[in-house]
Design brief:
This protein is an alpha/beta fold. The protein is about 35% helix and about 20% strand. The protein has seven helices and ten strands. The chain has a six-stranded parallel β-sheet, with helices on both faces. A two-stranded parallel ribbon has the order 1-2. A two-stranded antiparallel ribbon has the order 9-10. Strand 7, helix 6 and strand 8 form a beta-alpha-beta unit.
């Protein structure tokens, strides 16, 4: 795989029609988003195209991991998200929808406030969860769950490590997010540090995409003698068998 535009074009020229499926990452990456992604799609004439959203895989994986660990008790945890980019915002939305109170930090404070307002507008009215901007990482009790979602910048420094609760959980979700000194301090204090990477889930995601394609081929309304069979969520008529 590659996110380099010229390398992607060379790969497609060699693989189109040779590989039965070609997967395109349809996230809006800086080098391969928008028109560039459409141009790549148009190059694929003979292979079938599968579309991937790895950032969604990462966000879902983080939330599932936390629910596996804490269950409904996750709602009682003091959760901090550092970095409100694509992944961090998606995680915040999913956690709020589970009923969690989530504090969100971004260097641009106004952007953090706007994102939190948007997340809270999107949640169901009966949902008790809420996203709150964290103007300072020093306020309030220690953080019990810290999700560091920065990209290319350190989001957790040695100075911030004491703000993590004893036996707290820190997840490295972005790229280059944790200072090695901070990791050492956290582990000495009994904390846990985990890395969340969607790469391990890509194969399963591709298998699911193929299964959905296979299912779509069987969807619809088809005749079986004098009986009409309806499958795949399509609407049937009077007398049809669903």
């Amino acid at each position: 795989g590659t996110h380099d535009g010229e390398a992607a074009r060379r790969l497609l020229a060699r693989l189109d029609g040779v590989a039965p499926y070609i997967a395109l990452d349809c996230e809006m990456k800086a080098s391969l988003g928008g028109q560039a992604l459409l141009d790549l799609q148009r190059m694929i004439r003979r292979s079938a195209v599968l579309y991937l959203k790895p950032n969604d895989l990462t966000a879902d994986g983080v939330v599932v991991r936390l629910l596996d660990e804490f269950g409904p008790g996750l709602r009682a945890k003091r959760i901090l998200i550092v970095g409100l980019g694509n992944v961090g915002t998606k995680i915040a939305q999913r956690l709020v929808e589970t009923g969690c109170q989530v504090w969100c930090h971004r260097r641009n404070g106004e952007a953090a406030r706007e994102i939190c307002r948007t997340v809270n507008l999107l949640k169901p009215d009966a949902c008790p969860g809420e996203a709150r901007p964290a103007a300072s990482l020093e306020d309030g009790p220690a953080w019990e769950v810290v999700l560091v979602c920065t990209r290319g910048t350190v989001g957790l420094t040695p100075a911030m490590a004491p703000r993590v609760a004893p036996h707290g959980l820190v997840m490295d979700v972005g790229i280059g997010t944790l200072d090695p000194g901070a990791v050492s301090l956290l582990m000495k204090a009994g904390g846990r540090v985990e890395r969340c990477d969607s790469a391990a889930a890509l194969l399963g995601h591709l298998e699911l995409a193929l299964a959905v394609r296979d299912q779509r081929a069987r969807m619809g309304r088809k005749g079986l003698g004098e009986i009409a069979m309806v499958s795949g969520g399509c609407l049937g008529g009077a007398g049809d068998v669903v």
